[in-house]
Amino acid sequence: MASFIEQAQSKPLSDRKRVIAELADRLAPSREKWRRKAAFFHQEDERYLRFLIPKGLSILEVGCGRGDTLASLEPGLGVGIDISPRMISEAQRKYPHLTFHAGDAESEDVLRGIDGTFDVILIVDTMGVLDDCQAMLEKLHR
Q1: Residue 9: band (very low, low, confident or very high) from pLDDT cuts 50, 70, 90
Q2: CA distance linking residue 141 with residue 121, whole number of Å
Q3: CA neighbours closer than 13 Å in the CB half-sphere of residue 73
Q4: Which class for 33: exposed (0-12), middle (13-18), buried (19 or more C-beta within 10 A)?
């Protein structure tokens, strides 16, 4: 049976991506605990991103996880996409003022479901999940 995210896109996930998505789904409930353990790193990372990205911009975050980094940037319009439906569920619960999509950022079908243009496209710790980084960046250019 196709997973939740595979139902939203025409091309099935690669075996590698399926394993990554399943792991992220299993870890979603404990993610907050691990963020607290690495609080200094995340605070410094977000502080630097806030230095680069002013409040109020429209931001698309690819690989947003639970949406913590996106929310910390205080976007005027914030949209996140993640391969893990459970991470997205956590993000929607925690940040109802932002918009989140579960799906593969390399899927044309998923990207068509994201409306708008963005001042910033943020990709943090996500490149290793992608099968073809260049192709995904070209798809985002639209």
Answers
A1: low
A2: 10
A3: 29
A4: exposed
Return the residue matching tokens 């999509």: 101
CATH architecture group of domain 14-140: 3-Layer(aba) Sandwich (3.40)
- Is the confidence at residue 6, as pLDDT, over 50? no
Structure-token pair, residue 59: 């931001």
Cα 42 from Cα 33, distance rounded (Å): 13
Domain ranges in the chain are: 14-140
Task: Encode pLDDT of 41-54 as tens digits.
Answer: 889 999 999 999 99
| pTM confidence score | 0.85
Count other C-beta atoms under 10 Å from residue 24's C-beta: 21
Residues 6+ apart with CB under 8 A from 66: 28, 31, 32, 87, 90, 91, 94
